[in-house]
Structure formats: structure tokens, C-alpha cells
Amino acid sequence: MITSVPPRDAPERPPRTVRPDSLTRLVDPVCALPGPDGAEEFWARVEEAGTPLVGPDPRGGDEHVAVTFLWRGAPGTRAVQVLPNKLGDPRAPEGNLMEHVPGTDVWHWTLRLRRDWRGTYDFYVDEGEGPGPEAADYWQRLRTRRRHDPLNHRSLPRRWGGDPVSYAELPAAPSARDWRPRPGVAQGEVSVHEVPSERLGGSRRVWTYRPADTHGATELPVLVLLDGEHWQPQLGLAHLLDNLIADGRIPPLVALLPESVDAATRWSDLACSPDFVAFLDEELLPWTAARLPVTDDPARTVVAGQSLGGLTAAYAALAAPGRFGNVLAQSGSFWWPDGPEAEWLTARIAESPRLPVRFWLSFGEQEWVALPAARRLRDTLACAGYEDVSYREFNGGHDYLCWRTELADGLVDLLTRGATAPLAGAPRHPDR
Question: Beta strand pairing status for 106-114 and 118-126?
């Protein structure tokens, strides 16, 4: 089993990444913190407003706002840590500790953030059980005491189950309205299947999406989206596709969403596995073609994924460019593997002839450990002659909240741009 992990030794954030400003001492412009006699009235106002609280930038200007996270403690609460996605350094967890208003149950922490930020977040609460911060394993134990925000009604399903994860979206953040079901929009058909696979040694569950009103259609574009068990049953990808198709922003397409099964299987499959790519190319797509009217044109086929899935989406297209002509990689783990062969796929691109593949890449500005590898991939693609590459960085972290809207933008771009003409003699299966 592959056990590589993201590099943990990046000593500094790379240039142009976001380091949020802590404004705990400047919390008054956002909310008037209570004294011992005003806590009940304070919490009543907070409950009505919802959390986190957003107020004007204490330093002036319109580009940033102050964002205050709040936790209502119990009598024994000793510490509360808040971790917005990638806005904390795991090597310095004390930097995300909330402050306590003496004599009250109010814990607070404020950041100055750009108005287009969005992110999920968790609280970690020490309610006075066990050794305190002086213990050597204190921070590890605190990370087992995760809580969602009970004063925030906005949440997403958590990856691999458990309580939902709370999220915040600032006023200028990209809208996720395309993900909400809309009255009057024709709904595609979603079904789930067990697809047999010799390559994977059994079968793999796959969700399929067929657009509405296309039963006489032929040659529909294909989207292969990895981590299917989260994108469809949990996040409802079909609503997004229904809306984008109804608005004419993408053509009607068939979507295939293979399951990752569990964390260990995901690591095995999505770390540049030749067998997994062969499953997609030689088993899943032919199985689909026997049942649904899909194209075999690589220029109208998109393979998409996030994190390790983004790495594998790029690997799949490079391993089988005669089937996958479009890569949509979000926060791809292009640092993989950690160690002497780090950034293996980028090195392979640099050493190989250009293939007829288009890339749409996006990364969060707060993914500061992974961004150097992402930018090196971008530059390597340019040097290797890949002219049809879209690369952008969004104000967020390694986060499905951000990936939802990024996925929509990437699909619109790849499925509406002019198709790249195949290169003469491009191999179907270069050495995997």
C-alpha cells in the first residue's frame, strides 16, 4: 500500500500566497464583546445573525473584511482551536487558538480576509478532560475533539462520513447557485452500477448520469469524475449538470463517477496506478459505450479529479491520450511522491513529446505547501509546448466548497473551447 504523504518541510509560504492577518485585538468593529452580565443578550444576537460574523476592515478599504469565529464554551472549557481550511499551520497550532472573554462563556478569533474568500472550518474543544497544554501529546489529542459550528446553518457533507462540516462564504466569493436544484429544469437520470474489472480484481461501483431528453442522441461527450461516491450521493453533481445543460453553458453529456471505496484503496488507485487508468480506459468506457450513446473522441472526453484525483486525471490523459483529451485537475497532488522522486509526473511531462491533451488547472491560494509543485507543473507544460492550458489560483484551500464552483468553471471552459487537433502519431498507450 502506498503511504506517501504531502511534503511537510516547506519552511516558508511561496510568494503571492495568502497569509491571513490575525485581528483578535481588533474584534470590536465586528461585534461588541460582552462582559459577565451581557453574555445571554450577546448570544441571542449572534444566534439571530449566524456565524461567523463579518464586519468592515478595521484598517479601512473595501477589499478585505474582518471575520470573527465564535464558540460558546462550557464551565470546564480550557481551550478552543478553530481551523478554517488551510488557514492554519499544523506545525504551529497555537496560532489558531481562540481568546476567552474573562467571566463569560465567549471564545473568539478574528481574521482579516479578502472579500472573495470561502472555506470550511472546524472547532477543536478542550473541555477540561485529561492533561493540559503542558502534555507532550496535547495537540494530537485536541485534534480528536472536533466539533462543527452549531450557530452556522451552512454546511457540507464531510468526506468519508461523520458530522457535516461548517463553511463560510464572504460577500465576493464565487456563487454556488448552479449547485441548487431549480424548478422547471429537466432532470437527468442517475443510476448506480457494479462494473466488472479484471484490472482491479473484482468490480467497482460507478454512478452514471444521463442527461434528460437525449434518448435519441448519439456521440454524447463524456465526463469521468473521480471520487464519485462523494460528488454524486453527497454533493449532488446531477443538479449542477442539469443546470449547466439547461442554461446552454455545456452540451448534454454523460458523466461516469467511479467510487474510491475507502482511504487505503484511494491511495492505491489514485497515485498514478496503471491498473486504475486501464480500468477507466479499457473497461469502464467500453462498458459505458455498450449501454449509453457516448463519444469515443478524446477531444470531447474530460477526466477530472481533485487532490490525488487531480494527479490521476493528468496521469490518465498522458497514459491514454487517445481516449482522454481534456484534464480538469483541481488542487492536484503534483508533489507526489514525497522523497527523491518528488514531482514524478511533472518530470515525465518535461521528458516526453507533447500530446494532444488540454489542461484546466486550479489551486487554492492557501495551499501553500502544494503551490510550488503546482506552479512548476504549469511552467513545465508551457516549456513542453502545451499551449492550451488554463491555470488559476482561487482564494481558498484544499476544499470541496471551492472545488464545486471550480469544477463548473472548468467544465464550461473545456467543453466549449475549440477542440485541439490530434497530433500525428500520438500513441494510445505510451509506456505506463
Answer: unpaired
**Does 39 reside within a domain?**
yes
Residue 425's pLDDT is 32
Task: Return the H-helix or E-strand segment holding 207.
Answer: strand 202-210
Q: Among 347, 337, 398, which residue's Cα sits nearest to residue 376?
A: 347
Contacts of residue 179, Cβ cutoff 8 Å, sequence gap at least 6 = 235, 236, 239, 240, 243, 404, 408
Domain of residue 255 covers: 177-416
Is residue 391 situated within a structural domain? yes
Residue corresponding to grid cell 431528453:
213
CB atoms within 10 A of CB 200: 20
Distance separating alpha carbons of residues 42 and 46, to the nearest angstrom: 6
CA 153 to chain centre: 21
What pTM value is reported for the model?
0.90
| Residues 393, 288 share a domain | yes
Q: Strand 106-114 and strand 389-394: pairing?
A: unpaired
Q: Name the β-bridge partners of 70.
A: 108
Cα→Cα distances 340→42, 288, 337, Å: 55, 39, 8
What residues pair up with 385 in beta bridges, in sequence order? Answer: none
Q: Is the pLDDT of residue 131 over 60?
A: yes
Determine how many CB atoms are found less than 10 A away from the CB of residue 40.
10
330 SS3 class:
strand
Q: What is the pLDDT of residue 90?
A: 66
Q: Which secondary-structure segment (H or E) carries 84?
A: strand 79-84
**C-alpha cell of residue 6:** 504531502
Task: Write the DSSP symbol of residue 282.
Answer: I
HSE (CB half, 13 Å, CA atoms) of 208?
A: 19
Q: Is 203 in the same domain as 294? A: yes
CATH number of residue 382's parent domain = 3.40.50.1820
SS3 67: strand
Higher pLDDT, 115 or 140: 115
Pull the grid cell for residue 205: 461501483
Strands 222-225 and 389-394: unpaired
pLDDT in tens, 312-328: 999 999 999 999 999 99
Residue labelled with grid coordinates 464565487: 174
